[in-house]
Amino acid sequence: MNIKTFLILAFCFLGSVSATQMACVRNTLTAPAALPTPTPVPAAPVTFNVSIGNSSASATNYIYTVSGGANGTGGLLTFTAHVGDTVILPSAGIHPLYFDNGSTTCLTVGGNLISGYTSGSVTYTFPATGSYYFHCGFHASGCSPSNGTCGATGCTALAGVATVN
């Protein structure tokens, strides 16, 4: 018997017998426990500042634009955001804003339709995932049932969709 084997047997004999000590007798090592997976750090919130531009690609010659967004056929603006990001949408007398989360209930209507239209903008922080729709009450095209409602579908021209992940 060599000295290494003698010391291992002595150590195991002197201590109480456990699974770890039995591993000593077998002269094998067990793998250490896995390290915990680090929690990813979320990206800092982003602000999307939507503006109004002119384009012959739109039926009404108006489109929404934003950095990182794309205007598809008819001028519909699409962009992707994340929960906690903010969008700033324009609303002015000739561009009343209708903004919803896919329901017929407006999240906000820029220009306070009850008192008449005023210039300004609407700032909104996305609280949940989903699709958020916005369009101009005068210059969107193809909206069903009409431009003057939230929850309208099929809007193009001065219209947009933010997909929030």
Describe this structure in words.
27% of the residues are buried. This protein is 12% helix and 36% strand. The chain has helices at residues 3-14, 19-26, and strands spanning 47-49, 51-54, 62-65, 70-71, 77-81, 86-91, 97-100, 106-109, 120-125, 130-141, 156-164. The model is unreliable at 112-118 (pLDDT under 50). Helix 1 (3-14) packs antiparallel against helix 2. The protein has two domains: 1-32, no CATH class; 47-164, Sandwich (Immunoglobulin-like). The longest helix has 12 residues, at 3-14. By secondary structure, the protein is mainly beta. It has a six-stranded mixed β-sheet with strand order 4-5-11-10-7-8, with no helix packed on it. It is elongated, with a radius of gyration of 31 Å. The protein is built from two helices and eleven strands.
- Gross morphology: elongated
Counting H and I runs of at least 4 residues, what is the number of helices?
2
Largest sheet: 6 strands, mixed
- How many strands appear in the DSSP assignment? 11
What is the CA-CA span between the terminal residues? Answer: 66 Å
Structural class: mainly beta
CATH class of the largest domain: Mainly Beta
Low-confidence stretches: 112-118
Mean pLDDT: 81
* Range of strand content: 35-45%
Helix fraction bin: 10-25%
CATH architecture of the largest domain: Sandwich
